[in-house]
Structure formats: structure tokens, C-alpha cells
């Protein structure tokens, strides 16, 4: 699982145990808790805390993982999984998209926002792009290990070609400096770092939008601390292996939110709104739903069909009878 899932699951397990902590402040082991306690916690989240359906489902997944995978216990629960309400996506008009992009300063953040709208990429898909994923000859970008662990190809917008080439030149310069400093490593998925030891320092695997600062892998450090202790950890080569990660996603979100505000757009628009706008505008241009489904990486066509309700050629394309009076 991703490190985000790990952190989320650990946080929910801690909240679950805190919720059932004894009145004297003593902790109860999860094996002492069972189905009634799980149901009580889930009902508490829904009724008292009034959390979103997706939040309650995430908490349930974390607790089930704890009992089934860690403790090896089968549990049953009577609290129904919350149903996520279907809401219409926030879509920007073409003029509004143009205003937002112009409100972002020239540089990597405008390019990233351009990819979310011009190629329909999710925020994390843009952040995790590698140099090797950009194919100028075929005018396409390969999204590796997207949502659902699927790869897909999306169009490379011609307007972003020069900006992407400048970004790659920046990565080359930055990577060369890192190599001279003894760094130049990048995180590799799965066990590729063991299969290809030199790949972590190669240019093609570097992130297309790298972070400004070097960092250490939190998983490697935590594992070494558990095995060797902090004193031995300082002497290990793995601790001193500095890596350059990608730009943090919250930084991109803040840039887009500030641009929406500067553009004076009175919509609750975010990075994902650019992806929604990509799909809606393709539908308005006459592209079929199957093509849009492939570009977005949706498993189910029904997920893609939500854009017919916000498109001018869908439900909102029906003229109001008031306009005929």
C-alpha cells in the first residue's frame, strides 16, 4: 500500500482505540474489542461526528485491515457502509480556465495546472510524472500506475511542449548538481531499486516536477530505527542517502486556489475541477464517452457519464421553457 494509506490506517486505528479507552485512562488491546465496539465507533462517526461517507468507509477499512490482516480475526459489523452521495462536479468554462491558468505565475505550477486541464490528469498523477513518461515524438504522456494501478496514455498538449522541454532541462541541471554532491537518488516503485540498483540515479527516472529540497525516505528511516536504533542509524549508508522527491501536492493546490481567487471566479474550484473541465469540454466538442473514459482512466462508463449532466450537450443543453415565452 502507499505510504498515505499506511498513515491513514494507523491514524484511524489510534482513534478507534482512544474512543474505547477505559475511564481510568488505560488502553485496551484490540483483541479485547469486538463487533459491538466496531459498530459503536462507526455509529459515533456518522451520528455524532457527522463525518462524510467516504471518511466513515476509510475508518471501517482501516479497522477491518487491523483485525483481518494483523490480528488474524474475522469480525462482523452491523453498521452499514455509508453510501457516498452523487454530486455534480465543479466545472469551469473555457474562459474561466484561461483566467485561472493566466493567474498562475509562469513556471512549473502553471505547467502542472495546464496538464490537469490539457491532459485530464489527476493532481498526484501530475506530481508523480517522470522524465521518461513524456514522449514528444508521439505527442503523448504515459501515466504509470494511476488510480487502480493502471497505465494509460494521454495527449501531450502542443501548447505545453516548450514548457515541458524547459522543465526537463531544469531537471537535468538539478540532477547533475545532485550527482556532484553525492546524491541524485529518487524513489522507485515496488522492488525496482533492488532489481535495477543504478536506476535510482538515472535521469529518466527523475521526477518531472522535482522538489526544491532533498529528503530521506521515511519508510527506510523508520525501518532502520526499528531494527538498529537511532545511534546505529546515523552510521548507515541508507540514512545518508538523500533523495529528491516531487513537488508536494499541497503546494500545487495552494497555487491553484490562489489563482482562482485572483481570477475572481465565484466557484469552489480546485485542481480536480481542471480535470472535470477537461472531460466536459471534450464531450461538448463531440468526443464520445468511451474515448473520454479511456483518457480519464475510469473503470466504469457510468462514472464518466456524470459529465453529461454538466455539459451543454447533456441535461443542461435542454432549453428552458421560460426562454420561449
Mind sketching the topology for me?
Blueprint: H1 3-19, H2 35-48, H3 53-70, H4 94-103, H5 108-118, H6 123-127, E1 134-135, E2 140-143, E3 152-155, H7 161-180, H8 192-195, H9 218-233, H10 249-262, H11 271-284, H12 289-296, H13 301-304
Antiparallel strand pairs: 1-2, 2-3
Short description:
With 325 residues, the chain is mainly alpha-helical. Helices cover 48% and strands 3% of the residues. It has helices at 3-19, 35-48, 53-70, 94-103, 108-118, 123-127, 161-180, 192-195, 218-233, 249-262, 271-284, 289-296, 301-304, and strands spanning 134-135, 140-143, 152-155.
Structure, described:
By secondary structure, the chain is mostly helical. It has 13 helices and three strands, in the order ααααααβββααααααα. The protein has a three-stranded antiparallel β-sheet. A hairpin with a 4-residue loop joins strand 1 (134-135) and strand 2 (140-143). Helix 1 (3-19) crosses helix 3. The longest helix is centred in the middle third of the chain and has 20 residues, at 161-180.
**Low-confidence spans:** 230-239
Query: What is the helix/strand order?
Result: HHHHHHEEEHHHHHHH
Class based on secondary structure composition and strand pairing: mainly alpha
CATH topology name of the domain at 94-164 and 248-317 = hpI Integrase, Chain A
Looking at CATH, the homologous superfamily of the domain at 94-164 and 248-317 is Intergrase catalytic core
Characterize the biggest β-sheet.
3 strands, antiparallel
Amino- and carboxy-terminal Cα gap? 59 Å
Oligomer: single chain
Instruction: State the total count of DSSP E strands.
Output: 3
Shape: globular
Task: Please work out how many helical segments DSSP would assign.
Answer: 13
Cα Rg = 24 Å
